[in-house]
Specification:
extended; 30% strand
């Protein structure tokens, strides 16, 4: 019984840590609301599972004049098409 409770407590601590990190990222995002910029940092051709060359783009999302906030994501052309469809539904 004690071991079960200890496992549940450990699981809850992990969940609490994940939520705290999420809240921290969300607060940083809110502080930069209206200031965020996105720029294509680099691009490369990568073979997909069908050995077809697919362009991948590394996109830097950041707030100007801030070296502490931001992130990099990689996306493909189909990812952009999917985003466009979702935005205009």
């Amino acid at each position: 019984m004690v071991q079960t409770l200890e496992k549940e407590m450990e699981s809850m601590r992990g969940q609490c840590d994940r939520l705290a990190a999420y809240i921290e990222r969300l607060q940083a995002w809110i502080q930069g609301l209206g200031l965020w910029t996105a720029s294509i940092h680099s691009s490369q051709l990568v073979k997909d599972s069908n050995l077809k060359l697919v362009p991948y783009f590394a996109i830097l999302v950041s707030v100007p004049d801030s070296s502490r906030s931001g992130w990099v994501v990689t996306k493909t052309i189909p990812d952009f098409h999917c985003l466009q469809q979702r935005l205009f539904l």
